[in-house]
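Memo subject: From amino acid sequence to discrete backbone structure tokens
Action wanted: Derive the backbone structure tokens from the amino acid sequence.
How to read it: Take the token row as a discrete description of the fold.
Attached in line: The record itself begins immediately under this heading.
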Amino acid sequence: MNSPSPSPIQSAPPAVVLLSGGLDSTTVLALARSQGYAVHALTFRYGQRHSSEIEAAKVIARRAGVVRHQIVDIDLRAFGGSALTADIAVPKDRDLERPVKGQSEIPVTYVPARNTIFLSYALALAEVVGAIDIFIGVNALDYSGYPDCRPEYIEAFEKMANLATRAGVEGRTRLTIRTPLIALTKAGIIRLGTSLGVDYSDTTSCYDPGAHGEACGRCDACQLRLKGFREAGLADPIEYASEKSLAR
């Protein structure tokens, strides 16, 4: 008796995708699926003030048909040090193209060591599911100055990861941190996602959303997102608290 043929999802190579529920990670998820990967999505509830992104990630993962969507609880509020995890005001209306003289290059919305923590969890999941590819939506062009979004950081983590895993030490496989958006503008990311059929109305980017999840339109993340849609020649489908933000 012949064994049944494996389904496409079973025969596809596994990959871990860090999924925040935002525009970039959703685009990366769509790209990984389009390349034939069986996606294990990983989302973090880390005490972020913009926790509405977790619900967005659930919807996105379900509609994308991922193999697994793991939501991990870690409380980075214990350390604070960021406007996203402590009682620090989220900056609004910053001119991201012409920073104020004396303004810190790294904004207070940077969460200390966040990508290092997230990638470490992704590395553990990759070992368990046999994945040699980890996707993360970092970007070195249209970003807010975070040190853990730079190519040299990703290269360093990848080198460390291959020293830290059983498969790497045994020489059986080499793990790769995939950053397909790292050299794209926000507009380029949006065009790519649109070509892959991404529904950006499911995503959220705001650092300081309103009570019903509406975006403020004034924080760095909102400004970068709006700029990207404007330059891509497309309308942003999410709700904003102020129509003023849409006219920027």
Notes: Residues 1-9 have pLDDT under 50 and may be disordered. Residues 8-200 form a domain with the Rossmann fold fold (CATH 3.40.50.620). The two ends are 66 Å apart (CA to CA).
